Amino acid sequence: MRRAWKIYRLLAAQNLKRLMEYKVDFLTGAVSFLIDQAVGIAFIFIIFTQIPQLSGFTFEQIVFIYGFSQIPKGIDHLLTDNLWCVGYFIVRQGGFDKYMTRPINPLFHVIAETFQVDAIGELVVGIALICYSAGSAGLYVTPLSVILTIVAVPFAALIYTSIKIATSAIAFWIKSSGFIIQMVYGMNEFAKYPTTIYSVPVRVFVTFMIPFALTGYYPVVYLLTGENPLLNTGIVVSVSIVFFILSLLIWNRGLSAYESAGA
Amino acid sequence: MIYAEHLRKEFKKVVKDPGLKGSFKSLFKPKKEIVVAADDVSFHVPKGEMLGFIGPNGAGKSTVIKMLTGILTPTSGQCRINGKNPQTDRKKYVREIGVVFGQRTQLWWDLPLRETYSVLKEIYEVDDDRFKKRMAFLNEVLDLEDFMSSPVRTLSLGQRMRADIAASMLHSPKVLFLDEPTIGLDVVVKDNIRKAIMKINKEEQTTVILTTHDISDIELLCDRIVMIDKGKNVYEGSLRQLKEKYGNIRELNFETAPGFSLTEDEFRSGLELGEDKMTVEKDKNIFKVRFDSTEMPVGEMLNYTLSHAKVKDISFKEADVEEIIRRLYKQGECENE
Amino acid sequence: MNRIGKRYVPFMKAGVQTLIAYRLNFFGFVIGGLIYCIVMFYLWKAVYDSAGGDSFLGFTMTEMVVYLFLANTTTQLTYSTVSGDIGDEIKDGSISMRMIKPVDMDWSYLFTELGAAFMKVVVLLIPVTVGLEIYRYCMLGEVMFRPLNFLLYFLSVILAYIISFRVNLCFGFVAFYVKNLWGFNILKNSIINFLSGSLIPLAFMPDVMRTILEYMPFASMGYTPVMIYMGKYSAYETAFRLGIQIVWAAVMFGISKLIWIGAVKKLSVQGG
Predict the structure, then answer these.
(1) Which residue of B has its CA nearest to A97?
(2) Hey, are the CB atoms on B27 and C20 less than 8 Å from each other?
(3) Out of A36, A39, A202, whose CB is closest to C42?
(4) How far C5 CA lies from chain A's nearest CA (Å)?
(5) What is the pLDDT of residues C14-34, one digit of tens each?
(6) CA of B23 to nearest chain C CA: how many angstroms apart?
(7) CB pairs under 8 A between A and C
(8) Does B14 touch chain C (CB under 8 A)?
(9) What three-state secondary structure class fits B222?
(10) At the N or C end, where does chain C have fewer CB atoms within 10 A?
(11) Burial letters for C49-69: b for 16+ Cβ neighbours within 10 Å, e otherwise?
């Protein structure tokens, strides 16, 4: 474990050194994701100029949910962005050979290699929105509700990671799975708004099939309403663990199907 | 040391008919076929040996190498190094090997070369003392000092190859796999790389498995060769044996005197040797004849030539390895057709 | 003309074949767009439920649904990958391979894309239009489809595409200066999506902002065709908006040509 941490730090440091060489790109990336988020907020703002509340939620509460949902997304984006590359081109071009000939876990190696600072755009917006709305969203603040919400964050991020691991691993069989990651990952749109606005089949889908609802709405329900503390956090934790285990199984089967490139 | 036993690898491949119509067809009904890239490949390499692994393009060399390095899982059969199996014990297995793919680099592209080694040091858990000694040794053999602080993307191809070999040797592997280590390099650099490989093999008894298209790599470095074609072993043995077995080919070179005319067919007509026993090439008035000396002794050939042509200059020589291998590849093609 | 056109046919064929070869990627983006529309549908439904009343800022729920799906489809139709293509080709140097061919650079890109655009009309525009008309019929009990509006919409989409192509052509050359093209692309797309009204109808924006945006090239790239299809514009206004599109198409054509001349100089200096 200590060795893993040491290697992770080392690889991440290499990445940062590289970024220092390309400062403009770091800025482009971070600003891009920041603007992308800002546009989403402008949208909510324009709606709320016309209506006082949406499905029983105030502007501040909607902003709180939106902001919270960006944090697990940003954490995953920061740490595991290289999985996109696995799906898009590393496997197809045979670049995965490198990871197979090193004495560390290939999944860990792939993930540790990239530290995607673009994600700072999402994290900054997420934290800013939470800070802005927390005061006036009428939150149900107790030590327990705050702790449970914080506990849910890493597990919510793990849901993103699991989904990316499983969908990128498909490339081991079909060479390039970028479009599948894109398609499934795109469903995180559902996480930005209260799950209660969706119809029941959609709700079931985004809770248990592609569980992005668990990364935005569920962890904050308790803070917003004071209801069902253990149930909501419990679902987040258990579903994310189940998905993580499943994704590892798929990944490991994928490794033995890896065909490299060329003859 | 290294055992490859009945290695077989199949790939599924989607076949597409040409043109727009073909694209549409494969859109709805992709046709799949199974390609056998390696079929029942077996061999054994003892410790400290340098083995040349050769074969024409697309013969399945890379596939076998990738199975041996744990990158591909064989469809059937297995390989072992020091009793370890790459599929069941990958992490321990890859500690024993170093891999260099000539067409690809494992160096960190945007960073100074030095950084790559400090990362690999941790990945392979080389302790500080050992690392220092190791870098000194590699530096001496591969002469890295001049570009140690340059970003990898600025290195020349020859420097990059030396750096890559050093990267694969950092953890003192028992086996070194080199996939086309001299590809695209000029003569002088090739020579340096070969000397370095020899030195590593000599001083550390590192077993080396080398694939290459450059026959002089093989002649200078390898004790033994394994040749595969169409995914199968076609030859395994020492270079000397290969020469003995196929070395009865002789090359006759002669130049006709000015004003004397002779065509290839005219030269051929007096002999009863088929295309596979004799080839004749003519360039202006210089002839190059390759023939099988068991079918036609050298003396007879000399007499025949002198009596049929007005010769200005004449010489015989033994066929070189390149010629032998060319014939072996050709045989493979013929058998297939 | 015929002989000149013939030289570009291979580019068009290549465009269709690339789209088919990467069909799964293409469907990925189509389904991604669909998911986005579904999320927005529920969001708008919640908005209309919360607002009470039939109309929200002059749009009924039915109109909003039509707007949502059609704006998304229009964005996909007029979406041009040329900025990314040029960027990649500048990066790996293959742009010089294109320069040595006896064709105009921008036309060769255009024809490559037209192949893909044709496929998008078949697999995207036609099903979406049919679906929306069935939806409108079910909601309103009468056939709302106006062939004239559809034709004008199509004309407007073509103009929108030309503008989008030219704007993207200009953006492509930032590859000389920016390495993180992926991030830049996200930046460009989110700005265009917002300013072109494909995210929120420009009609919802504050008056001053709306007026400015309506005259900018971005509205011409998405908002204008959709409003024409929905019959939101009078005959006079339709003609006026189409005129603005033509003006922008001409302006962007000029700008992209100028940038291109500069880029060729830069290329020959850098050596591709």
Answers:
(1) B71
(2) yes
(3) A202
(4) 34
(5) 777 777 766 777 777 788 888
(6) 7
(7) 104
(8) no
(9) coil
(10) N
(11) ebbeeeebeebebbbbbbbbb
Annotated domain spans of chain C = 2-270
Q: Is residue C179 less than 8 Å (CB to CB) from chain B?
A: no
Using DSSP bridges, classify how beta strands B175-179 and B207-211 pair: parallel, antiparallel or unpaired.
parallel
**Across the B/C interface, how many CB contacts are shorter than 8 Å?**
10
- What residue type is assigned to position A228 of the chain? N
Q: Which domains does chain B have, with CATH numbers?
A: 42-243 (3.40.50.300), 248-318 (3.30.70.980)
Residue closest to B294 by CA, chosen among B317, B281, B278, B275: B278
For the CA atoms of chain C, what is the radius of gyration?
A: 20
Which of A43, A53, A190 lies closest to C200 in CB terms?
A43
Task: Please state the rounded mean pLDDT for residues A240-262.
Answer: 92
Neighbours of chain B (3+ CB pairs under 8 A): A, C
Backbone φ and ψ for B310, nearest 5 degrees, come out as -90, 105
Closest alpha carbon to A221 in A209, A235, A211, A208: A235
The pTM of the full predicted model, rounded to 2 decimals, is 0.82
Better-predicted residue by pLDDT, C171 or B326: C171
Question: What digits encode the pLDDT tens for the residues C209-261?
Answer: 889 988 988 888 889 999 999 988 999 999 999 999 999 999 999 998 888 88
At residue B98, the pLDDT reads 92
Q: In this predicted model, what pLDDT tens digit does every residue of B49-65 receive, in sequence order?
A: 999 988 888 788 888 98
Does the structure show a pLDDT above 60 at C269?
no
Could you give the 3-state DSSP secondary structure of residue B238?
strand
Interface test with C, best of A51, A93, A176 (most C CBs within 10 A): A51
For B35, B229, B246, B328, C71, the CA distances from B331, given in Å and listed in that order, are 22, 10, 12, 5, 64
